[in-house]
Specification:
4 helices, 87 residues, mainly alpha, Transposase, Transposase_8_domain, 0% strand
Length: 87
């Protein structure tokens, strides 16, 4: 997987530059971005704070772990049912 150049904290800071009144063209030039990337970030992270993004990452990780646990238990349950049917 490709490593991202900017962390979510940096992205939020870059987006806040526009909110403080800087021109998009200046921001893009300063950070070496394309305007498309800037507007994609803006649609994805609009109004989000660093704390909210951190919490979102924690919830996504917890959700991933719970899904994995469910998949493991479901597989285990199917195996037990299979064994019981053969008896």
């Amino acid at each position: 997987m490709k490593k991202e150049r900017f962390s979510e904290t940096q992205i939020v800071a870059i987006l806040q530059q526009q909110a403080s009144g800087q021109n998009v063209a200046q921001i893009v030039r300063e950070h070496g971005l394309s305007e498309a990337t800037f507007y994609k970030w803006k649609s994805k992270y609009a109004g989000a704070s660093v704390a909210e993004l951190t919490r979102l990452k924690q919830l996504e990780e917890e959700n991933r772990k719970l899904r994995q646990m469910f998949a493991d238990l479901s597989l285990e349950n199917q195996a037990i049912e299979e064994i019981l049917r053969k008896m």
